[in-house]
Amino acid sequence: MTKNKQKNSLGSTIAVSLTNYLDAGAIVAGASGLTLWQNYLGLSEANLGWLNALSANCLGAATGAIIGGFLADRYGRKFIYTYNMLVYMLGVIIIMLACNFPMLLAGFLITGISVGVGVPASWTYISENSETGNRGRNIGISQMAWGIGPTIILILGTLLAPPTTTADSAGALFPIVQSIAQTLGGNDVNGAALNVYSSRIIFFSLFIVAFIAWLLQRRLHESKEWEDAKAEAAEHHQSSFGGFKSLFTVRRNVKTMLFLCGMYLTWNLVSSVMGFFQQHIYETAGGLSNQFANMLTVGQWLIIIATTFVFSMIVDKVNQRWLYFTGVSFAVLAWVLVIFVGINNLTGLLVFTLLWGLQGGVSVQSFYALWASELFPARYRAAAQGVMFFIVRGLSALWGIGFVYIYGENGEGFTTAAFVMLGLLLVSLIIGTVGAPQTRGKSLEEITHERYGSDEI
Q1: Mean pLDDT score of the chain, rounded to an integer?
Q2: Under a CB-based contact definition with an 8 Å cutoff, are residues 119 and 385 in contact?
Q3: What 8-state DSSP symbol labels residue 135?
Q4: In the chain, what is the straight-line distance between the N-terminal and C-terminal CA atoms, in Å?
Q5: Any idea what DSSP says for residue 378?
Q6: What separation in angstroms does the CA of 47 have from each of 62, 98, 283?
Q7: Whole-model pTM?
């Protein structure tokens, strides 16, 4: 393996990983400003549930994933990178300009669809362009981008945060928010209308990153494995729809999707709530200010980034079954702690943040991204991920709507919700640990041959 090939693999991984940055960035940008939009537009908890349900966190991404998975297998991975960021930028612009709930909801939905379109292509492209001994590493690097996005967004949120009350101090850069708001909206902009400009500016930062990502990704070369699979399918007169059908008619495919969806869904039901509602929970049930809630979550994401770096360095070298078990165990311990110590206990909240950060670095999503891109043939690899992502994020959308009713207006149902979270994580722990595949150190071609034999499915 040449040094140049290693550089190419790493370079394409970084370019594609900007999709993960923008995925998590969109979720956390919405979350960090959720209370600000609620105050500005007079939103109810039900409105917040719909924002979560149709966003990049849930149904928006779910819809985009099933579309993007099919398009990536039908027209190529590069097709996605040529056009998808333009859709993302449109969604972000609508959010930036939102002045009512339908407009805000539409922006969240369009951005979410774009995120979903990019996810199957990204994980597939990274795996197909990775060296056998670096596949897990490159997936880990892409997950680091998923942590860096929220960290930067939350730092911005902290610096730009308005004062929660007249007694609280604003973020260091809030005067810039005031200046921009008054320049664009007039000197009479104040109160909630002024404060929400903090969130508008944060979404503008995502617009800039999306534009950079579009410039980089549209220059990527097509996946050689997809080109070979496409040529072979044409030779045997196999259609893209035929490959899509195989996901539901070939027993091995069905079993694999049940395994991956089982471990990922149960974890994501918890993670999606934390991704979108964490600051809101800290502010309502925990009694923290918006600024301190953002600061605490920044610390958590820094832990996630550091732990993900360690994960990327060891995942190709250690037993992946036990690495998975260790990561989800941190998540289980975190929720055991918060149930029995309480969320409004500062010490308990700090330890919870630490444990949740550790599990985020060795997360179920990292293993899902790795295994989902390994366990299916190239001809419908992205479509398989699109279907599973649709199922997971779609059900997460329903759970997000239900969660707000369990949680209550001011967090009075948090303990009940926490017990549900703990149960879901225990299920994910068991499914992933028992079913972990033995794919480490094998090429994608070897894995496909072992699972499907010499015939192209």
Answers
A1: 85
A2: yes
A3: H
A4: 30
A5: G
A6: 19, 15, 18
A7: 0.82
